[in-house]
Design brief:
single chain, alpha+beta, two-stranded antiparallel sheet, 23% helix, globular
Length: 65
């Protein structure tokens, strides 16, 4: 699994950070997503999928390897 975060689409809602703070963070300057782990292991798989589903702007996506 690989996570893609499109900062140009992100609106800074922070749902990803609330869902999985080990994988996602927010830029202090503008609130947009910062991807901490681009290829999370299985430990994070369910939470990352949930974060992508909850993203109101659709800025997050998953590429299956």
């Amino acid at each position: 699994m690989r996570v893609i975060a499109d900062r140009d689409v992100c609106v800074g809602a922070g749902q990803c950070v609330l869902t999985e703070p080990d994988v996602f963070d927010q830029d202090e300057a503008d609130g947009r997503v910062i991807l901490l782990i681009a290829e999370p292991d299985k430990t994070y798989e369910d939470a990352v999928r949930e974060a992508c589903d909850l993203c109101p702007s659709g800025a997050l996506s998953i590429v299956e390897d």
